[in-house]
Amino acid sequence: MSEDVPLISVILPVRNGERYVCEAIDSILKQSCDDLELIVIDDHSTDTTAELIQGFDDNRISVIKPEPNGHLTNALNAARGVARGEFIARMDADDVAYPHRLQKQVSHMRENPAVGILGTQVRKIDAEGNEISAGQVTKPLVYADIVSSLFFGCALWHPTVMLRKSVLDALGWYGSPVIKGREQFSGEDYDLWSRAVGSTKIANLPDVLLDYRVHDSNLSLA
Question: C-alpha angle with apex 199: 186 to 108, nearest 5 degrees?
Answer without folding.
Answer: 95
